[in-house]
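so ive been stuck on this for like two days lol. basically i have the seq below and the ligand is 2-acetamido-2-deoxy-beta-D-glucopyranose, smiles is in there too. i just want the complex predicted, nothing fancy, no docking runs or whatever. if the output looks off dont worry ill sanity check it later, just need somthing to start from for the group meeting slides
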Amino acid sequence: MRIANLLVAACTASTALAWGSLGHRTVAYLASLYLTPEATRWTNRLLNGQDISEAALFPDKIAHIPIFAYTRAWHYIDAADDPPRLCAINITRDCLPHTGCVVSAIANHTARVLDPSLPRFLQAQSLRFVLHFIGDIHQPLHTEKEDRGGNGIEVVFDGRRTNLHSVWDSLMPNKYRKRDEWWPGPPGDPRREREEEASFLWAKELFDSDGEAGDVSRECVSDAAECALEWAQEANGYVCSYVLRDDVEGVQAGDLGGEYYVGAVEILDQQVRNGGRRLAAWLNLMADATGDEASDGMLIVQDELK
Ligand SMILES: *[C@@H]1O[C@H](CO)[C@@H](O)[C@H](O)[C@H]1NC(C)=O
Ligand SMILES: *[C@@H]1O[C@H](CO)[C@@H](O)[C@H](O)[C@H]1NC(C)=O
């Protein structure tokens, strides 16, 4: 992973493609609160002790590097529907086999994490993709084609000119969680620590307010592509029911930092909660699938002997 770390250091200032780092970190931390002890051990070992929220940011950091350009389409699925009249994903139409999309990427990287023929660093890389994409698929505008997921829709948020995609990725989550630092700085920077703290606090609030008492066993885990499509359909539904409810003219009619923001907070909470719970169910299952506790213990010993 040394090469990857260098790449990460070179690219931390890039613009976001996805839920901002606050949203991704919170999904990852929330998932970590629901993990079984086995899944916690398995995840930590595969990530080599890296903070799970930091690991979840990896795909955004490499997406801007030309040799990783092929990963960019994996962050979203461009539903060519017609909001606000009709929201729907058609997987044949919207997920092109030669580029892939967030649905196929979740399936692909889940299979790769579990593929014992792959070298460990590639399994770990695929785990980082899974941590990230299960976040992205819950951002409504990552499931919508219109104006490139809202990137092309110019809007105003708290007096600032921006685009609708950024409003959902970062500006609203940051306002909600009282964050005004848009870049958390290099590793070791106190701003980064504050971002981790803010994410963990959000995750803890969601966890503590979960009526299901930490039980994620009813989340979809049957088939990766099927579950991912179900989550994408659900996120896409919010494009019609809220994000573009009054069409493009609606979001361009006034400052989105007021009433629009207030109404969106509930969706942010719900979608980050869904992402965290589902990611946890996923990791719990993957940890189970990779073997029993006995072999688990042996692996740890072997690692320590190296
Ligand atoms: C989905 O898209 C494909 C390819 O464009 C099309 O042939 C098919 O009829 C669509 N399915 C539905 C249910 O609209
Ligand atoms: C699966 O992921 C690997 C590694 O990133 C990539 O090379 C491959 O093209 C992916 N396959 C699909 C079907 O997305």
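Residues 90, 92-93 surround 2-acetamido-2-deoxy-beta-D-glucopyranose (ligand 1) (CB under 6 Å). The longest strand covers residues 154-157.
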